[in-house]
Specification:
The protein has helices at about 5-15, 20-35, 50-75, 80-105, 110-130, 140-150, 155-165, 170-200, 205-229. Helices cover about 80% and strands about 0% of the residues. The protein is mostly helical and about 230 residues long. It has one domain (about 5-35, about 45-229).
């Protein structure tokens, strides 16, 4: 079952995964905010309602996916020995997080293949986002954010696997909510400070540290499951 430590870990994974978010979503944020760039007399913070709306839509899609994944995992545990199934799913999620850490650090890009597979679904969803372009209101930005939340992303997929072991739809949704909130600082900052962040998040030491932290979370999840077994 998911506990407070898991929710905190999901938030920290979102936070440390910002190095991946920059690569995956930096171009999207830049394109979406291009038409909102401040003109003389228009302060930079005028972009904030739009950036918040983009990200609110994105996180709403994460939560929806988390609810579905958590509900599916809860249903699967009822088909087998609930305790054993829960522990098995938790170990699987921990292994997936270790793969995610290797991916974030640039040590083994195995999850890029999963992103490529997710591209099949993305090609069907992406055209819906064009209905809200060009963005003129925060409501349109929210709609684009809803579509953006389904962008193929190994980071999101890894947390969704974790949500399957969360114990139910509610916990799965909360796990993805915490993760989404963790990604928020980096993605909000991209809209205003993308140039300044580029060198920092691409530094090998930063990527290695982020990957190592996620690997530790994965090892922790596996160790908890083994002790409970």
């Amino acid at each position: 079952m998911t506990n407070l430590i898991d929710f905190l870990a999901a938030f920290l994974i979102g936070l440390t995964g910002g190095v991946h978010c920059f690569g995956m979503c930096g171009g999207i944020v830049g394109a979406l905010t291009l038409g909102l760039s401040p003109l003389p007399g228009h302060p930079l913070w005028a972009q904030l309602p739009y950036l918040l709306a983009y990200n609110a839509g994105r996180i709403a899609s994460y939560v929806t996916a988390g609810v579905l994944a958590g509900g599916a995992g809860g249903w699967m545990t009822h088909l087998a020995s609930a305790h054993r199934a829960q522990l098995g799913l938790q170990i699987f999620a921990g292994l997936f997080m270790i793969l995610l850490g290797l991916y974030l650090a640039g040590w083994w890009p195995i999850l890029s293949r999963l992103e490529q597979a997710g591209g099949v679904l993305w090609r069907r969803i992406e055209p819906f986002g064009r209905r809200w372009l060009p963005v003129r209101t925060p409501a349109q930005a929210f709609g684009i954010g809803l579509v953006w939340g389904w962008l193929p992303c190994g980071l999101v997929y890894s947390v969704l696997v974790w949500a399957i072991s969360a114990g139910g739809a509610l916990n799965g949704g909360l796990l993805l909510l915490c993760f989404g909130l963790g990604t928020l600082p980096m993605l909000l900052a991209m809209g205003a400070f993308a140039a300044a962040l580029t060198g920092f998040v691409r530094h090998p030491a930063v990527r290695s540290l982020a990957g190592a932290l996620v690997i530790l979370f994965g090892v922790y999840e596996i160790s908890v499951a083994v002790r409970m077994g």
